[in-house]
Design goal:
Layout: H1 2-33, H2 49-78, E1 85-92, E2 95-100, E3 105-107, E4 109-113, E5 117-124, E6 129-133, E7 138-142, E8 148-153, E9 158-164, E10 176-182, H3 184-191, H4 199-209, H5 212-215, E11 234-236, E12 242-244, H6 247-255, H7 278-290, H8 312-320
Helix pairs in contact: 1-2, 4-7, 6-7
This protein binds dinuclear copper ion.
């Protein structure tokens, strides 16, 4: 994004610079030209419609151009490509905890390969932080209680500074890290160095341990909706609304199950607020994602997904029950 952001920024500087020059030149010229002279009476000039239209219409188009350009850069920067590699970020006072979908965990360091789209799924376990990588022209607030997203594609190997850009307490200034961008081969070597298995597999284990599977059965005969193929799809709710099953939806359904009841089901699920850590939540989200083809393939989850048949219509049927 750096090139796009810089081009827009330089354009704004040039437009502002030209306007400043124009205004100051006019001020100085008019001040000299129409200065008070003894014996000369001021002549009153009425407005000029063509002149006023001109200086309204030209800036209008300039501002519209800036707006459209900015909007395009913004939406590009805000929309992670579909096949992005996913990395979960948990911020806390005062460190960054990062976990790859493949299971690697890092603190204050993120290793990524050059040229790959990386989507960050971020949350905070205490206060508001902000994930800021100046070299990537990327900054996104990280909030407690919800996920925020960001993405980047590093184009040059190297080490880039990561800062926290939201004052978050005593050691805010020390909440820094590095994004290490590696050549793909180097990255593969780094990746193969020890992991507890993919994040979705961890999530599957937690899913079983917490007893989620007793209600969220794969055969859609459970008291809760089957989660097979749900992620990324629209979900019809009891109150008639339709929401998309994204990361925040899954998160909310775990922590505040009563907030969005799937049509055809009863609000019987207990909350897991306080029972699961942010890391466990991320793993559960990654697991639910792995049950759906719509999830990002960046998560290498094929081996982690249970052997159940991908019964896509099942989830739909259970909603109507
Ligand atoms: Cu975290 Cu400032």
């Amino acid at each position: 994004m750096a090139g796009n952001v810089d081009a827009l920024y330089i354009f704004l500087l040039i437009v502002s610079g030209l306007m400043t020059l124009l205004i100051f030149t006019a001020v100085i010229y008019f001040a000299a030209r129409y200065r008070h002279r003894p014996g000369v009476r001021a002549e009153q000039i009425e407005g000029s419609t063509p002149l006023e239209i001109t200086w309204s219409v030209i800036p209008f188009f300039v501002f519209i151009a800036i707006f459209l350009w900015g909007a395009i850069v913004y939406f590009k920067g805000r929309t992670p490509p579909r096949d992005s590699t996913e990395v979960y970020v948990v911020a806390k006072q005062w460190m960054w905890k990062l976990e790859h979908a493949e299971g690697q965990r890092e603190i204050n360091e993120l290793h990524v390969p050059v040229g790959r789209d990386v989507k960050l799924i971020m949350t905070s376990q205490d206060v508001i932080h902000s994930f800021f990588v100046p070299a990537f022209r990327m900054k996104q607030d990280v909030l407690p209680g919800r996920y925020t997203m960001a993405w980047f594609r590093a184009t040059k190997p190297g080490t880039y500074h990561l800062f926290c850009a939201e004052y978050c307490g005593t050691q805010h200034s020390g909440m820094v890290g590095d994004i290490v961008v590696m050549e793909p081969a180097q990255y593969e070597a780094w990746m193969s160095g020890g992991t507890g298995g993919p994040l979705s597999a961890t999530g599957e284990k937690i899913f079983a341990e917490l007893g989620c599977a007793t209600c969220h059965r794969m055969d859609s005969q459970g008291r809760g909706p089957s989660l097979q193929g749900v992620f990324g799809k629209p979900v019809l709710l009891q109150d008639g609304r339709t929401v998309t099953a994204d990361e925040n939806y899954v998160r909310e359904s775990i922590l505040d199950p009563g907030a969005k009841i799937v049509n055809g089901f009863k609000p019987v699920m207990p909350t897991f607020q306080g029972l699961v850590s942010e890391e466990q939540l991320n793993a559960l989200v990654a697991y639910v994602k792995s049950l759906s083809n719509a999830g990002a393939p960046g998560a290498r989850t094929a081996e982690a997904a249970p052997a159940a048949t991908p019964a896509k219509p099942a989830s739909k049927g259970s909603q109507v029950n």
